[in-house]
Amino acid sequence: MVSAYIGVGSNLAGGLASPGEQVTKAVEHLAAMPQTRLLAQSPLYRSAPMGPQHQPDYINAVAQIETALPPEALLDALQTIENRQGRVRNQRWGARTLDLDILLYGEVEMHSERLILPHPGLCERDFVVLPLLDIAPQLSIPGHGKLADIAQHCPRYGAKRVGEVA
């Protein structure tokens, strides 16, 4: 079993589910995946979109799982969850009902056509670093160093815990 961290984000409602409900539902699906168990889930964060700005804010979280699935099989399982929740891939960094990214897969560093680990944008996104820091403050990112140090230098895009006052 390997500990992996999954970034979860949504800025579009799907069916009757709001972006926050999409994130919560996705974490439930992560917990139900075969050969996998949910270890932790961060609080929800709200952030402005990274890509085109004419879209709603995102709701983000990070989940820690333990899995026996190899990295690319885990990616397949995540994409199945995205598709079940109405994900449509029309535009890079465009609005979406659900986005699931493998941030870390144990200490694995890899670069294939389908998957780069650790996730290449992990250290530059406060909406990933802050929720990750909530559930794994002692974590070290392969090739980048301690998460606590990364958090001090991470660009700020205005990520705030849901319910925080600006």
Précis, in short:
This protein has 166 residues and is α+β, with helices and mostly antiparallel strands. It is built from 4 helices and 10 strands.
Topology diagram in text:
Layout: E1 2-10, H1 19-32, E2 36-41, E3 45-47, E4 58-67, H2 71-84, E5 99-105, E6 110-111, E7 116-117, H3 126-135, E8 140-141, E9 145-146, H4 147-153, E10 160-161
Antiparallel strand pairs: 1-4, 1-5, 2-4, 3-4, 3-10, 6-7, 8-9
Average pLDDT number? 91
Number of helices: 4
- Tally of domains: 1
Subunit organisation of the chains: single chain
Radius of gyration: 15 Å
Order of helices and strands: EHEEEHEEEHEEHE
Looking at this structure, what is the CATH superfamily? 7,8-Dihydro-6-hydroxymethylpterin-pyrophosphokinase HPPK
